[in-house]
């Protein structure tokens, strides 16, 4: 294990291109340990989720097939999708204006989830869109975190701050619209686990590697966000600690969004359609 840690640490050192003095806030050994164990943890979570889902699907084969949920076409869905698409495009322009390194920030969850929600809001492939939504609904926690503690220090270009808030409020609204007007899913633990497993691997594998290559702090994988009075969170364990906190919170908040969206659907849409 010690040799493996050394090899991974040296690999990170060889591909890294620092542009900030905090680039090595965590040691190469710390990065290597977390790269191995956190990715293993999230792979196990995905494996459990997939197997639970297979078991659930097998059990459902024996039951009568439910009547498919009705999709209520909504102009609001299209408006929110267009807003998200425009925001992603504007963010890409902003990043390109700052140089090739900054373009890697397009991997940030807000931009990826914006693209996913655009697809879910507009796709004609209802069944696949439903599965994608079952996974992506739990990422609303990232949106909430960004709105509660917005990091606007680097947003200096015209309209960039406004664009940030417009995008994130659209991201906040989108899951409720998708639940109320389109998919009306239920909380399913297998999909919740797959969701969090993918989220974790995107950080501790994909973001980790691209952070070293570009030198940019994608979703704070190199060094912590400005935490103010909570400076004790900036110790070496901040990534692991926040990862597990988000893991638990995402399941609870995702479930709450499902319940609220279903309530909106049953209270307003179904009653209005029955009149």
> How many beta-strand runs?
0
Computed structural class: mainly alpha
What proportion strand?
under 5%
3D shape: globular
- Give the overall average pLDDT: 90
Rg, Å, rounded: 20 Å
List the secondary-structure elements in sequence, H or E. HHHHHHHHHH
Unreliable parts: none
Helix content: over 70%
Question: How would a textbook summarize the main sheet?
Answer: none
* Spatial gap, N to C terminus: 67 Å
The number of helical runs is 10
> How many separate domains?
1
Q: What oligomeric state is this?
A: single chain
Function: Positive regulator of ferroptosis.
Main location: membrane
Protein name: Transmembrane protein 164 homolog
Pfam families: TMEM164
What is the strand and helix layout of this fold?
Layout: H1 2-15, H2 28-61, H3 75-98, H4 100-103, H5 109-122, H6 126-136, H7 140-148, H8 160-183, H9 189-214, H10 238-274
Walk me through what this model shows.
This protein is globular. Helix 3 packs antiparallel against helix 8. The N and C termini lie far apart (67 Å). It is mostly helical. 72% of the residues lie in helices and 0% in strands. It has one domain (30-56, 69-274). It has helices spanning 2-15, 28-61, 75-98, 100-103, 109-122, 126-136, 140-148, 160-183, 189-214, 238-274. It is found in: Membrane. Keywords: Membrane, Transmembrane, Transmembrane helix. This is Transmembrane protein 164 homolog. It holds the Pfam family TMEM164.
